[in-house]
Every structure is written in structure tokens, then in C-alpha cells.
Amino acid sequence: SIPEAQREAWKRAQTTGFRGTEGFEKEFVRHVETTLGRSMFNCDENAAYSATSLAFRDRLILDWNRTQQRQTYIDSKRVYYLSLEFLMGRALDNAMLNIGLKDTAKVGLADLGFRIEDIIQQEHDAALGNGGLGRLAACFLDSLASLDFPAWGYGLRYRYGIFKQEIIDGYQMEVPDYWLDFNPWEFPRHDVTVDIQFYGQVRKQTDDTGKTVSVWEGGELVEAVAYDVPIPGYDTPTTNNLRLWSSKASGGEFDFQKFNNGDYESSVADQQRAETISAVLYPNDNLERGKELRLKQQYFWVAASLYDIVRRFKKSKRPWSEFPDQVAIQLNDTHPTLAIVELQRILVDIEGLAWDQAWEIVTSTFGYTNHTVLPEALEKWPVGLVQHLLPRHLQIIYDINLFFLQAVEKAFPDDRDMLRRVSIIEESQPKMVRMAFLAIVGSHKVNGVAELHSDLIKTTIFKDFVEIYGPDKFTNVTNGITPRRWLHQANPRLSELISSRLGGNGFLKDLNGLNKLELLADDKEFRKEWSEIKYANKVRLAKHIKDTMGVTVNPASLFDVQVKRIHEYKRQQLNIFGVIHRYLALKAMKPEERKKQLPRVSIFGGKAAPGYWMAKQIIHLINAVGAVVNKDGDIGDLLKVVFLEDYNVSKAEIICPASDISEHISTAGTEASGTSNMKFVLNGGLIIGTCDGANIEITREIGDNNIFLFGNLAEDVEDLRHTHTYGSHTIDPDLDKVFKEIEKGTFGTPHDFSAMIAAVRDHGDYYLVSDDFHSYIETHKLVDEAYRNQDDWVSKCIISVARMGFFSSDRCINEYAESIWNIEPLAMKDC
Ligand code: Z16
């Protein structure tokens, strides 16, 4: 750092970032003219977006610097959130709102000839995630910063985020999402690099003290380069860091030896092979496919992050025993589980600690969050693959397992089968490393993401571990969402109405403050303003539907929305079968009866994993039904069916505020939590749902007369499945009519949809579509009835919003901080 004598000069020269409209305009024009090399004669909206973002980035990085300096100086405990996915969405609007300068920018942009809404639209979503798990990580970062916690996120800087979805002739097509062309929100740190080793061999050697040590040598190196993304808190100078690692060939551009020997092609090939590691996000949600490159990604990211964390800890010169007092690491699912093994390796092989002392440090440091009970989503890696890629890590995994099983055997001496069941190594052909078990053994706390889910993991997939460790190691932290993005940013008018009645914006940082709204649930004037806002949001969505899909929908209809990843367990097929049932019912009515029906728009959106054939069939059926229904003259506005292309975070910000009812209809016991259910209710929409995930707690909070629940319960699922397979299996008669209509060819070639029907009729109906169909249809009738009484409906919406405080991700983060991380906020002194 700079010597004392010269620091005065630094202080005199310090930048402060802009203040006020004039200040913003100056910075904006400076960036247009110098950074971008343009002028007022060729500054289009895209350039204006760039200049606005750069002006805000300059502000953020100053707060970022101060936050980091203060955290380093105080050196209190930090939390590190390791996640392979961060589904951040757009950054500009969020930055303007969190810093509190959106109005300044709005006026400034207007002065300079731009509308702020158009400028915000220019930004490409940062889509480094699949769905709920990645978006949860993004909400957590917002809460951590807003609550002043010293916290870092660590992830991968994918060159391609989740693919863009195009719907062509009713089918999903995938287009690569190259998003890094211009990204003003990241700071490349070419000086922060780590060499990551792969392959090679392990050699045992004896050191001077006669101790045997393992040396991992040979193999290949890939360089990790850090890219930092500032994370601004809301209404606080705290600006945390999200560090994303990018891969490149170790030792610079390419191998100069090879290059000079005329082997240009192969030197470029090496370079490309290294860059492949961080090239693309795996597009599966709730599915693990065991590809070698995925394991490489995991180790690359985990090893770079741990190196960074350990390097930071070592600066303080504390003894190793204090590591868990300074560092908490949260594992977002099992994807970063190798961090447990890597830290043990660093402590034992490199720092020379004894195994037991190292293991005590490791297990005190880590916490593990489980996000699913679906067997196909639980990670397992072939032992041979781990051996090949990470030979020393496999040895350590075997040692961890050995000591663990020895302890289990001691505690349960007569239970041989227990050892087989809980072993980290599955004795299958080929042998597999069970990552969830490794994560449990290497952590001090394991949590699920909603109450039902946390109970289920304790009684099903992790039952034995509850016996071994006792129940206290397992806990629940129900998911939450950030009210800044999901209310204030997505629904500015509702946020403003609420703050006008609550006397300020305080609820955005203390969401329980919403409960005062309940007093206004019967206030006529308030209800009117509330409805007007909902209507305006529906008009905005209707325009989006017209512009993108070419379908005209009437905003006075009931908007019924299901947007989320397409998955059989989430049951979009149940929804579309229900839509067909409604269509048939309308067709069968006499015109005068038909006229009395409530107009509806069924809105779907979501991506199917590219290799998930059945999910793609579901998308096709939705579009096929839309194509028939939307042009049926008998039906008109009474029913429209829309599949919105390329559902993502920025589209969710338009969709959630515009919904009347949204669907969260997973087979009971399959959706760990769900978080869009929270977004819809917080935006004044009601929901129809099964007794699954967080729906149950939402019901408890908002009251069971404000939610439409239906379907079988989780506790009955197993028996029903058993009966389907071994007993008699009859299909619901109304559902059978729907199937027959599809088979008649009403929605195009029946063969295209035969697998979807067969899954229910012939293959055991694993997701209970038929079992829940009747209850689903009946519940939709209740929805129609309830919607006819608009006063009551709006009251329900207001009461629900008033009772949603619990689902703030701030509450969630405070629970993690207290019960898992043992960490305190570190507010910035106003300096
Ligand atoms: C994911 O998004 C989730 C779980 C999982 O194992 C993998 C992925 Cl990519 C989701 C859950 O399905 C959802 O219920 C939950 O709300 C979300 O994770 C956040 O916990």
C-alpha cells in the first residue's frame, strides 16, 4: 500500500461518484463521449444503457471498496455462499433502486432525451442459473448485503448462461445465450488467479519428522481468473462481492513452446480445452447426469474459491483452530461438496495438520442445504471418474468414509445393513460416491428449504443420519424472496400505494410491516386503487403477449398463470388437461349459457431441459391447444391459451404482478419449497396449489380461506403409487374424455402426445395426474366463483399481501446467520 506521506495526495484526488441530477448527467455524457467514443448524434438506447450503467457502476465500486476495506479492517467472521448458479437477472434497475437514485436517473435521462423504462429494457439478463435454486442464491445475496452481513458469493462465470428458448411451430428450440459481449457489472481481476490441478498421481513420502505425507503431482493445470460483481444492499452503503471464476489455459495465452515449434493448432486447442470448463451452464433443473465436464466445473470452482478463502484467512495470522470462527461456508446443494474434501486436503497435505484436528475444523465450517428429494436429482459420481480426475481427493473420501463407518459401527454394533445404507461409497456396479452423504458427514448443519421438505428428508432419504447424529443436526430454513426486486422493482405502483398507506418504505426492509395493510382490506377507496394497479399490470402483460406471441388477450379476463421450469413433477400436464376440459365444457354449452361464463387466459411459460423429451411434449401440447382454442369463434375471449417464450427473471418481473391466480400444483412431496408461489402472492395474486413445499406455510400465514388447495397429501402418495402398479388403476372419467379428444386429433397428430397419455394410463401415473384431476377441476370452479365477487377477491388479495412478511429472504438470512453461520452484521459507519 501507499506510504503515509503520500496518502494526503490520494485523499485530495479521491472520487466521490455523482450526486444529483446534474452530476448524473455529467457522468452519463462523459461515458458516452469518452468510454464509448460516441456523441449526442449517435447515442442510441443501447449506448444510453451502457453509459447509465457505467455511471452507476462507478458509484457501486466506491461503496464496494469501502465495504471491503472495512470488512478487512474489522476482520470479523464472513460467510461464503458457494453456488453453481446465480440467477441474477438485470442489474441496472436493482442498482438504481438499492442506492436510491432511480428518480435522479429518471429525470437526468429525460433531460437527455431518453425514457428510463426503455433504457432498463436494453439490459441482457444475467442468467447463470436454471430456476429456483439459482434465483434463491440471487435473493440471498440481496438480503445479505441489505442486512449488512460480511458475505461473499462464489460461482462460475459461464460464457453461456441458460439457453434462450424460441418456440417454433409449437416446439421448443434452444439458442445459445452469449451474454458477455458488454457487461458493465463485472470487474476482471487479472491479478487474482489460481492454478487448478487435475488428473496426475499421488505419491506417499516421509517427511523430516518421519510422518507420511501424500503428494499430488503431475496432471494438468488450468488457471482460474476472478471476476467480481458488486452486490449493492438496499438503503445501506454495504456493497458485497460476488466472485465468479473464469477458466483459461495456465501460463497465459497459449503454449509458446508449441507455438514456436509450429504446432499452432494444438496450442490453440489446449487453450480452448481449458476455456471449456467455464463455457456453459448445465441446463438441467432437478436432474444430475454425471458428465465429466460437470465434475471438472465443480472442482475448478470449489478449489479456486477455497484457495481464495484460505488466503484471506491466512492474512490475519491466526491459528488454524480459529478458522471456523472466521469462516462459514454454505453449500448450495451438493454441487460444491468437494469443498469439504479440498479443505481437508489443504489442512492435512499442505498445512500439515493432524487428520482429526483438520476434520474438526472442516465440519465446523460447512453447512449444507438440500433442495430436493427426487432420486434422479441426487448427485452420485462414479468412483473411477473421481479417481481419474482427482486421485488424492478419492483417497480422502475413502478415509472420511472409513472413520465415519467405524464410528457408526461402534454406535450400532449389530446393524450391518446400516453400514451399507449410509456408506458414502455405494457398492454398486460401478461404485458411486454419494455426494449428499458426504455433504452431511462433512457439515455441522443440514437444512431443507420448507417445513414439509425438511421433515421429509429426515424421515426418508436421510433417515439413518438422524439416528446417527441425532435430530439437532437437521433443521429447516424456509425459503424466501427479496421484496426489493419482487415487489418494489417489479411492481412499483403497488409498492408506492403500500408505502403511501403505511407511511413510508420501511416494509421493504421489515416485511412484517405489511401486516398493517390488513386494516385496509375492506376500505373501498383502497380496494379501488389496488384493482386499478392490478388491471394496469395486466394491460402491460397483455401488451407483452401481443408483441411477442401475437395473441390478443382481454385484460378483463381472469389471468391464470403457471410459469416455472417444465417438469413432470410440477405437472404442467395437469394444467393443460384441465384447460382442455374447460374448452370441451364451453363447447358443449348453449350460447346463452356460454355467455355467462367467466373469461380466462391460461398463461404458461418455462424452459424444458434440452434432453427432457417428455417436458418438450408438454410444451408442444400447450401450444397445440392454444392454436386451436385461440382461433375458435365459438369461444372468443372466454378462453385463450398462451405459451410465453423464454421465461426468465426479467419476464417474471412483468408476469408476477399481472396474475390473478397462479398454479403451484406439484405432486405432494415433490416440490421442496417453490419460491414463485411467494412472488405471486406478494404481488396481490391468489394461488391454486397442492399441499406441497412452501404452499403449506403460505396457507398457514395467509389463512386457508385465501388459498385454493386441492389434491392428495404427501403421506398418501406412496400408497397410491403402489395401488397403480399392483392394484387396479382406473382413470378419472373426465380426464379420459380429455384423452379421447386428444386422440381424435383435435389438437393435431395424436401420436405426438401419446407418451403423455400413456404415462398416466399405462405407466402407473407416477405423478398422480388422474388421482388429483377431479379435485383440481372442482377447485377451479371455486376460483371462478370467487373471482365473480371482486370486492371479496380483492380483500383476499390485500389480506394475503399483508400476511406475507414471513417470506422475505431477509427473515431467511437472519435464520441462517443465527442458527447455522453464527455471524453478526457489520454495518458501515457513515464515513
Ligand atoms: C432447483 O432449482 C431446485 C432443486 C434442485 O435440486 C435443483 C435445482 Cl436446479 C429448486 C427446488 O425444486 C425448489 O422447490 C426450491 O424452491 C428451489 O430449489 C430453492 O430451494
Quickly describe the structure.
The protein has 831 residues and is α/β, with parallel strands linked by helices.
Describe the structure.
The protein has 831 residues and is of the alpha/beta class. The protein folds into two domains: 75-90 and 125-478, Rossmann fold (3-Layer(aba) Sandwich); 483-807, Glycogen Phosphorylase B (Rossmann fold, 3-Layer(aba) Sandwich), CATH 3.40.50.2000. The chain is 49% helix and 16% strand. The protein is built from 34 helices and 24 strands. A nine-stranded mixed β-sheet has the order 7-10-11-4-1-12-13-17-18, sandwiched between helices. Strand 8 and strand 9 (212-217) form a beta hairpin. The longest helix has 30 residues, at 45-74. It is globular and about 95 Å long. (1S)-1,5-anhydro-1-(3-chloro-2,5-dihydroxyphenyl)-D-glucitol binds next to helix 7.
